[in-house]
Amino acid sequence: PGEDLVRYCYERGVKIESVPGPSALITALAISGMPSGRFCFEGFLSVTKQSRFEHLEAVKNDTRTMIFYEAPHKLLATLKDMLKIFGDREIALVKELTKLHESCERTTLSEAVEKYTLEAPKGEFVLL
Q1: Opening angle at CA 52, ends 47 and 57, nearest 5
Q2: DSSP state of 90
Q3: Where do runs of H (alpha helix) occur along 1-128?
Q4: Residue 45 per-residue DSSP state
């Protein structure tokens, strides 16, 4: 499938760019290299910690690629909560889709928490 080719390119340092589509979640999924055979869109998580925890707990055992939207000012808290509930799993952080500073960072939740503890996030994120 397509994600295998995208993953192959990432592993060899080939830059992947998106073509604007009807939805940020589909564009992010296409360039992330994450499994795309089965996925679910979870949208924005709640601002309140308890509701966010309940939402993450409800989906923690889902085997599909989960897609979330997140604002930069909430990113670190969300990543920390995901790490606590999901464990240290793989994540793709896609931001600034179809813009000059578009990026797709494939990493782990613990590495993402470490990075954004030291660096203020900028731009709207799609987390896969």
Answers
A1: 175
A2: E
A3: 2-11, 24-32, 49-59, 75-86, 109-118
A4: P
